[in-house]
Design brief:
It is a single chain. This protein is an all-alpha fold. It contains six helices and no strands. The longest helix has 29 residues.
Length: 130
């Protein structure tokens, strides 16, 4: 096996494992209201698209998340309801963090990340414009 083939094999294996990790985190997010779900399925789709087209196809045709994932993959659209849920979840989790009285720098870093992610989410269209 050449070095290039070995690297491709390792990359695909890593993407395959990461895809399953993201699916697991998405499933956990369905049970925990402060943890996102769709974001992890989007990340899993990105991994599986490169490592396992069969699993990517399964995600794209999932009865609950398939339509949202198809919209994201084809048009980079985040449905309005998903935006609201994501922003609400981020706000609630940040409030919980503040209640726990973290170090000031931790609250600032987490708050900055949430503001950047929230801005990205709001910058994406909510419906397909053809």
């Amino acid at each position: 096996m050449t070095l290039k083939a070995a690297l491709v094999t390792y990359k695909n294996s890593l993407l395959f494992v990461l895809g399953y990790v993201f699916v697991a985190l998405g499933v956990i997010g369905m049970a925990l209201p402060v943890m996102p779900t769709t974001v992890f399925f989007i990340l899993a789709l990105a991994c599986f698209t490169r490592a396992s087209p069969k699993l990517a196809h399964k995600l794209l045709h999932h009865p609950r998340f398939g339509h949202t994932l198809q919209l994201w993959q084809q048009y980079r659209v985040i449905p309005f309801k998903a935006k609201i849920m994501a922003l609400l979840g981020m706000a609630v989790s940040f409030c919980v963090l503040l209640i726990l009285s973290p170090a000031t720098w931790v609250a600032c870093v987490v708050g900055s990340i949430k503001l950047l992610v929230g801005s990205y989410i709001l910058a994406k269209p909510s419906k397909v414009l053809l």
